[in-house]
Amino acid sequence: MAETKEPTLYGNLDASVPEIRLFALLPSAQPNAPLVGQLQVVSLHSTPPYESLSYAWGAPEFTEPILVNEQTLFVTPNLDSALRALRHEEIPRLLWIDAICINQRSPRERGHQVTLMRTIYSKCERDLLWLGPNTHVENNDYMNPSEDLLGEGMHLMRGIADKDISVLGVMGHKWAAYKKSRIKIFLRILERQQNEKDVPDAELAAKIKKKEAELSGTANDSAWLLSYDEQTALERILTFPTVWDRLWVMQELSSAPKIQLVGGRHTLDWDVISGFLGDTPYADAFHATYSHNTVQPCVGRIFETVQKIDHQRRIMKEVTAGHRESKLMDVLARFRDTKSSDPRDKIYGLLGLVSGKINIEISYELTPQQVFASVTAAIINESGNLDIICQRPWTSNTGFISFADGQESSTGQDKLPSWAADFSKGGQIHLFAQRAIFQAGRPSCKVPCHVINGSVLHTKGTVLGRIGPILQQDSVGPPQQGAGSTWIPLEWLKLYLGCNVLSSSESYPSYVTGEPASTAFWRTLVVDCAAYPMTRLAKSQVEEEDSAIRARWLQKLNEPTGPETKPSYGDEPFINPGIHAMWQRITSDWVFSTTTNGLYVLIMAPAKEEDIIVCLDGGKVPVVLRPLGDTPSGEEKRYQFINIAYVHGLMDFGTEDSAILREKLGLEDEEFWLV
Length: 675
Prior knowledge:
This is Heterokaryon incompatibility domain-containing protein. Residues 50-252 form the Heterokaryon incompatibility domain. The chain is α+β, with helices and mostly antiparallel strands. Helix 6 (165-195) packs antiparallel against helix 7 and helix 9 crosses helix 11 (304-320). Helices cover 33% and strands 16% of the residues. The strands form five sheets. Strands 1-6-5-3-2-7-4-8-10-11 form a ten-stranded mixed beta sheet. The protein has a five-stranded mixed β-barrel with strand order 15-20-21-22-24. Strands 9-12-13 form a three-stranded mixed beta sheet.
């Protein structure tokens, strides 16, 4: 934190007004002259015109002195570089800068000022986003581009946004050359297939036509491919600077009325970037080359972070106009991969982007575990459901919270309840019930939720079954990748059901839903969905794929095997592209298993045999719980939340249509205490 030689630099602020401090950076025509400024206390309701600064603190080394109100304050080298670049030659510059305007030594003041952050940034004339360079670092690299290199990136971005033909010309030629090369490669593959009598002439012609359409770019066949240097130039301003990883900056940029990117003496208005992103399909037609020489659109890669910020900025405008809400879980999920030195700031640093009243106490006297548990409960109360538990886009935790130094705590108040989201981690959403695709549990849960002693969550639901033996391997984990990984479905079928279900579907016992066992099996492997976008399989899709799968899988079983066997081109277990895409998504994390009462399920590590699968009230997908054997005598049965699961035929268990299945399986409601 920033240090002062004299404690009198920061007087108390009146929280009832409320008051903030602004920093007047005094002018100098000499770049190396000492930095001098003055702090002034103002009411947030009547501030003079000021600018705010967004930047990365860098390493916590407060080595650079500035003179503030005639007292010495030490700041980080990166802030020193920014102030020298921003200092005017003849007139003062009025700024709000967190490291200077907040008494960082006072947890109470920090907590109060955090509640004002959205207002502070929304009232500034513009926010200055400092990209660098850090002049205290001798070597310029991709993390600290030089002033000239930052200027090149800004110039290129401006040319692309303005549709400057001198900029676009070469990119267009590169795309045309790439498209021709890809078609040639595809033609060679198809010719080889035809020579092996695998592809009829008519089918060959159709595939060529389809591939040409896929590579044609936008509707008017206009697309652009960036060179390595052009891609790097954009990444220098939109990806490489560490400021894009800083969580606090997300709130600052989302709230400010105007933004200006600053790289030394070079600047770029945010409106240039925002206008480009909003110009579709023009923006989507820009491509670049990434790992393994794959060519992909730039918007989802180079512009990934700025696109999230721009989306949040649009939401905030709609919130101000009263046309939309900005929910806490959505905000936390959108910026989950950003970083903060204090785990609590993963919450506090984004609260200003949430509309409506949220019952969350901002206090740096609470532990991160206490904050995360209380925020999880607050989200449950706000939503009236358990999406934060069943659908949280954070890595499933094992009851422990990880800190920046990599250490873990496992005892006492350091333990994070298993049901609470570990907001210090990034992750992904494994099932997509937030899109109303599934409704495994009842639509809502009781709110306010019942949390005992800040750590035990009392819930209700229905036990669907207990996980049986996991036959693929000793523990649950993603399938092993390799030459035979494509046909993992057939290997799992052999282990659990036997191959007779493919040829004897009529005589083989059907699944609990009444459909053939083999049909229920493959539908389980793709969570009964096609992609993209994710949609539930229609009856016609199931019927079409089912007959094709039966024939295809039986043929695969009868094929000779051995080192001399030639691979079959297009040798995939699923025919429909959307269904196959779903299988590719699922196979990276899930494995098939069955419950002791005969249900087909997909589970993930660390789920194991004897865990139970439950539909909780308010949960759109089933969850895996582990009964704890150390419950004190006379107390309710305690469970640990493990993760989520797919259960075929019961993903709509929360609807009225489930009554027949509930009775058939003998399922009843129970109460659960999650720890």
